[in-house]
Amino acid sequence: MIEVQDLAVAYGHGRREIAAVDSISFSVGTGELVSMVGPSGCGKSTILYALDGLIKPTAGRILIGGDEVRGIRRDVALILQDAGLLPWKTVRENAALAMLLQGIKEDIQSTLETLGLSGFESRFPGELSEGMKRRVGIARALALHPRVLLMDEPMANLDSLTRERIQNLLLDLWNTLHFTGVLVTHDIEEAVFLGHRILIMSPRPARLTEVLENPEAGSVDYRGSKAFHERVAYLRTKLGAVES
Q: What is the DSSP letter of 36?
Protein backbone atom coordinates (compact mmCIF):
# COMPACT_ATOMS: atom_id res chain seq x y z
CA MET A 1 0.00 0.00 0.00
CA ILE A 2 2.74 2.49 1.04
CA GLU A 3 6.20 2.47 -0.54
CA VAL A 4 8.82 4.96 0.65
CA GLN A 5 11.87 4.95 -1.60
CA ASP A 6 15.08 6.75 -0.58
CA LEU A 7 13.13 9.60 0.98
CA ALA A 8 15.11 12.69 1.93
CA VAL A 9 13.74 15.99 3.23
CA ALA A 10 15.70 19.15 3.95
CA TYR A 11 14.56 22.58 5.13
CA GLY A 12 16.16 25.84 3.97
CA HIS A 13 18.77 26.41 1.29
CA GLY A 14 22.53 26.71 1.00
CA ARG A 15 24.32 27.19 4.30
CA ARG A 16 20.98 27.36 6.09
CA GLU A 17 19.87 23.97 4.82
CA ILE A 18 18.99 21.49 7.56
CA ALA A 19 18.59 17.82 6.72
CA ALA A 20 15.54 16.38 8.49
CA VAL A 21 15.29 12.98 6.79
CA ASP A 22 18.15 11.14 5.11
CA SER A 23 17.49 8.45 2.49
CA ILE A 24 14.82 6.37 4.22
CA SER A 25 13.10 3.41 2.58
CA PHE A 26 10.30 1.28 4.02
CA SER A 27 6.93 -0.18 3.08
CA VAL A 28 3.59 -0.63 4.83
CA GLY A 29 1.33 -3.42 3.64
CA THR A 30 -2.38 -3.02 3.00
CA GLY A 31 -4.23 -3.18 6.32
CA GLU A 32 -1.02 -3.05 8.34
CA LEU A 33 -0.51 -0.69 11.29
CA VAL A 34 3.09 0.43 11.75
CA SER A 35 4.57 2.45 14.64
CA MET A 36 7.46 4.87 14.25
CA VAL A 37 9.67 5.81 17.22
CA GLY A 38 12.86 7.76 17.71
CA PRO A 39 14.44 10.65 19.63
CA SER A 40 12.57 13.94 19.89
CA GLY A 41 13.11 16.16 16.86
CA CYS A 42 14.56 13.36 14.76
CA GLY A 43 12.22 13.90 11.80
CA LYS A 44 9.35 11.47 12.47
CA SER A 45 6.64 14.06 11.93
CA THR A 46 8.38 15.27 8.78
CA ILE A 47 8.12 11.76 7.35
CA LEU A 48 4.43 11.68 8.25
CA TYR A 49 3.76 15.05 6.59
CA ALA A 50 5.57 13.86 3.46
CA LEU A 51 3.33 10.78 3.41
CA ASP A 52 0.32 13.11 3.63
CA GLY A 53 1.56 15.25 0.75
CA LEU A 54 2.01 18.34 2.91
CA ILE A 55 5.79 18.37 2.41
CA LYS A 56 7.56 17.80 -0.90
CA PRO A 57 10.55 15.44 -0.66
CA THR A 58 13.99 16.82 -1.45
CA ALA A 59 14.83 13.43 -2.96
CA GLY A 60 13.24 10.02 -3.37
CA ARG A 61 9.54 9.37 -3.71
CA ILE A 62 6.47 7.99 -1.95
CA LEU A 63 3.92 5.69 -3.54
CA ILE A 64 0.46 4.95 -2.12
CA GLY A 65 -1.49 2.27 -3.90
CA GLY A 66 1.07 2.43 -6.71
CA ASP A 67 0.54 6.16 -7.33
CA GLU A 68 3.20 8.72 -6.46
CA VAL A 69 2.22 11.20 -3.77
CA ARG A 70 2.27 14.70 -5.27
CA GLY A 71 -0.04 16.48 -2.84
CA ILE A 72 -2.92 15.92 -0.46
CA ARG A 73 -5.08 12.91 -1.36
CA ARG A 74 -8.69 12.10 -0.51
CA ASP A 75 -7.83 8.55 0.55
CA VAL A 76 -5.25 9.66 3.15
CA ALA A 77 -6.17 11.31 6.48
CA LEU A 78 -3.93 12.84 9.14
CA ILE A 79 -4.66 13.05 12.87
CA LEU A 80 -2.70 15.81 14.60
CA GLN A 81 -1.23 15.77 18.11
CA ASP A 82 -3.59 18.40 19.54
CA ALA A 83 -6.62 17.28 17.46
CA GLY A 84 -6.50 20.65 15.63
CA LEU A 85 -10.00 21.66 16.72
CA LEU A 86 -11.37 25.15 16.00
CA PRO A 87 -12.64 26.55 19.33
CA TRP A 88 -15.52 28.49 17.73
CA LYS A 89 -16.96 25.42 16.00
CA THR A 90 -19.08 22.67 17.54
CA VAL A 91 -18.15 19.00 17.72
CA ARG A 92 -20.25 18.30 14.63
CA GLU A 93 -18.72 21.20 12.69
CA ASN A 94 -15.16 20.27 13.69
CA ALA A 95 -15.70 16.61 12.79
CA ALA A 96 -17.16 17.56 9.39
CA LEU A 97 -14.48 20.15 8.56
CA ALA A 98 -12.28 17.90 6.41
CA MET A 99 -15.33 16.71 4.48
CA LEU A 100 -16.37 20.33 3.90
CA LEU A 101 -12.92 21.31 2.64
CA GLN A 102 -12.90 18.38 0.21
CA GLY A 103 -16.44 18.99 -1.00
CA ILE A 104 -17.82 15.75 0.43
CA LYS A 105 -21.51 15.84 1.33
CA GLU A 106 -22.26 13.09 3.81
CA ASP A 107 -23.89 12.84 7.23
CA ILE A 108 -21.27 12.74 9.99
CA GLN A 109 -23.62 11.29 12.61
CA SER A 110 -22.72 7.62 12.23
CA THR A 111 -19.03 8.45 12.69
CA LEU A 112 -19.79 10.49 15.82
CA GLU A 113 -21.82 7.61 17.23
CA THR A 114 -19.02 5.13 16.52
CA LEU A 115 -16.63 7.29 18.53
CA GLY A 116 -18.98 7.77 21.47
CA LEU A 117 -19.72 11.41 20.65
CA SER A 118 -23.48 11.12 20.29
CA GLY A 119 -25.11 13.74 22.50
CA PHE A 120 -22.08 16.05 22.29
CA GLU A 121 -22.69 17.28 18.72
CA SER A 122 -23.48 20.87 19.79
CA ARG A 123 -20.71 21.21 22.38
CA PHE A 124 -17.66 23.39 21.77
CA PRO A 125 -14.06 22.17 22.32
CA GLY A 126 -13.77 24.20 25.51
CA GLU A 127 -16.57 22.11 27.00
CA LEU A 128 -14.86 18.79 26.31
CA SER A 129 -12.29 16.69 28.16
CA GLU A 130 -8.94 16.09 26.46
CA GLY A 131 -9.99 12.53 25.65
CA MET A 132 -13.19 13.74 23.98
CA LYS A 133 -11.23 16.30 21.95
CA ARG A 134 -8.99 13.53 20.61
CA ARG A 135 -12.09 11.53 19.65
CA VAL A 136 -13.35 14.50 17.63
CA GLY A 137 -9.98 14.66 15.85
CA ILE A 138 -10.23 10.97 15.04
CA ALA A 139 -13.83 11.45 13.85
CA ARG A 140 -12.69 14.21 11.47
CA ALA A 141 -10.15 11.86 9.91
CA LEU A 142 -12.42 8.82 9.73
CA ALA A 143 -15.24 10.83 8.15
CA LEU A 144 -13.18 10.80 4.94
CA HIS A 145 -13.24 6.97 4.90
CA PRO A 146 -9.47 6.93 4.31
CA ARG A 147 -7.54 3.94 3.06
CA VAL A 148 -4.50 5.31 4.91
CA LEU A 149 -4.60 6.87 8.39
CA LEU A 150 -1.55 8.85 9.54
CA MET A 151 -1.32 9.64 13.26
CA ASP A 152 1.07 12.18 14.75
CA GLU A 153 1.18 11.61 18.53
CA PRO A 154 -2.65 11.47 18.76
CA MET A 155 -2.52 10.48 22.45
CA ALA A 156 0.21 12.87 23.63
CA ASN A 157 -0.25 14.60 27.00
CA LEU A 158 -3.18 12.43 28.05
CA ASP A 159 -3.34 10.75 31.46
CA SER A 160 -2.51 7.04 31.39
CA LEU A 161 -6.10 5.77 31.68
CA THR A 162 -7.40 8.06 28.93
CA ARG A 163 -4.43 7.15 26.74
CA GLU A 164 -5.22 3.45 27.09
CA ARG A 165 -8.88 4.06 26.28
CA ILE A 166 -7.95 5.91 23.07
CA GLN A 167 -5.43 3.19 22.19
CA ASN A 168 -8.15 0.56 22.60
CA LEU A 169 -10.51 2.68 20.51
CA LEU A 170 -7.96 2.94 17.69
CA LEU A 171 -7.42 -0.80 17.87
CA ASP A 172 -11.17 -1.43 17.63
CA LEU A 173 -11.42 0.94 14.67
CA TRP A 174 -8.53 -0.77 12.91
CA ASN A 175 -10.10 -4.21 13.47
CA THR A 176 -13.39 -2.91 12.05
CA LEU A 177 -12.24 -0.64 9.22
CA HIS A 178 -8.97 -2.39 8.22
CA PHE A 179 -7.23 0.86 7.29
CA THR A 180 -3.50 1.04 6.65
CA GLY A 181 -1.92 3.09 9.42
CA VAL A 182 1.31 4.82 10.41
CA LEU A 183 1.57 5.97 14.04
CA VAL A 184 4.27 8.36 15.23
CA THR A 185 4.69 8.18 19.01
CA HIS A 186 7.19 8.80 21.80
CA ASP A 187 5.44 6.27 24.02
CA ILE A 188 7.25 2.93 23.83
CA GLU A 189 4.39 0.86 25.23
CA GLU A 190 1.99 2.50 22.79
CA ALA A 191 4.29 1.71 19.86
CA VAL A 192 4.48 -1.95 20.89
CA PHE A 193 0.76 -2.27 21.65
CA LEU A 194 -0.41 -0.92 18.29
CA GLY A 195 2.35 -1.51 15.74
CA HIS A 196 2.63 -4.78 13.83
CA ARG A 197 6.09 -3.52 12.97
CA ILE A 198 8.04 -0.78 14.71
CA LEU A 199 10.32 1.53 12.72
CA ILE A 200 13.19 2.77 14.89
CA MET A 201 14.72 6.08 13.80
CA SER A 202 18.11 7.65 14.50
CA PRO A 203 18.65 11.20 15.76
CA ARG A 204 18.23 13.90 13.09
CA PRO A 205 18.57 13.54 10.21
CA ALA A 206 16.23 10.58 10.51
CA ARG A 207 17.60 7.29 9.28
CA LEU A 208 15.94 3.92 9.71
CA THR A 209 18.12 1.95 12.13
CA GLU A 210 15.93 -1.13 12.63
CA VAL A 211 12.52 -2.61 11.89
CA LEU A 212 11.22 -4.58 14.88
CA GLU A 213 8.69 -7.29 14.03
CA ASN A 214 5.74 -7.33 16.43
CA PRO A 215 3.21 -9.83 15.01
CA GLU A 216 1.19 -10.26 18.22
CA ALA A 217 -0.02 -6.63 18.13
CA GLY A 218 -3.71 -6.22 17.45
CA SER A 219 -5.27 -7.62 20.64
CA VAL A 220 -6.34 -5.83 23.82
CA ASP A 221 -4.90 -8.78 25.79
CA TYR A 222 -1.42 -8.19 24.34
CA ARG A 223 -0.48 -5.68 27.07
CA GLY A 224 -0.32 -8.44 29.68
CA SER A 225 1.72 -10.90 27.64
CA LYS A 226 5.36 -11.88 28.05
CA ALA A 227 6.10 -10.96 24.42
CA PHE A 228 4.77 -7.43 24.99
CA HIS A 229 6.99 -6.77 28.02
CA GLU A 230 10.03 -8.29 26.32
CA ARG A 231 9.61 -6.01 23.29
CA VAL A 232 9.03 -2.95 25.47
CA ALA A 233 12.25 -3.73 27.36
CA TYR A 234 14.16 -4.28 24.13
CA LEU A 235 12.89 -1.03 22.64
CA ARG A 236 13.81 0.94 25.77
CA THR A 237 17.36 -0.40 25.54
CA LYS A 238 17.55 0.23 21.80
CA LEU A 239 16.30 3.80 22.00
CA GLY A 240 18.58 4.51 24.95
CA ALA A 241 21.51 3.42 22.80
CA VAL A 242 20.25 5.50 19.85
CA GLU A 243 19.92 8.67 21.94
CA SER A 244 23.35 8.28 23.51
A: E
